[in-house]
Write a structure and sequence with these properties.
By secondary structure, this protein is mostly helical. The chain has a domain of 72 residues. The protein is built from 4 helices and no strands. It starts with a helix and ends in a 14-residue tail after the last helix. The model has no long low-confidence stretch (mean pLDDT 78).
Amino acid sequence: MTYFILYFFGIASIWWVYRVGWTEALKTILSVLIPSLLIILFNVKAGRLIFKNPMVGIISVLPTAIFIYRGSKPIVVGINSWIDRKRNEFVDSKEVVDAEVVSKEEA
């Protein structure tokens, strides 16, 4: 079942990259993946510390998920702006040749 889920997410990621491009797909995947990983890690640690059982921490994910999601937004925005800045620097660094269009009638 785990392989099926990974296969499904892999196909969905490939389709998303094909549809919107690398940078937009990367930004979208990171904006979902970073808060999700932080929520899971926090609740496993809290479950071990408070209840001595990581499963209780996973079950109690909903109350803390809202706070961690909002708290991780500045990280996601920072990474996305860094990706955009790098893409803009790459576009600006290309050599651009200006050319004038001359119609056949003028020539």
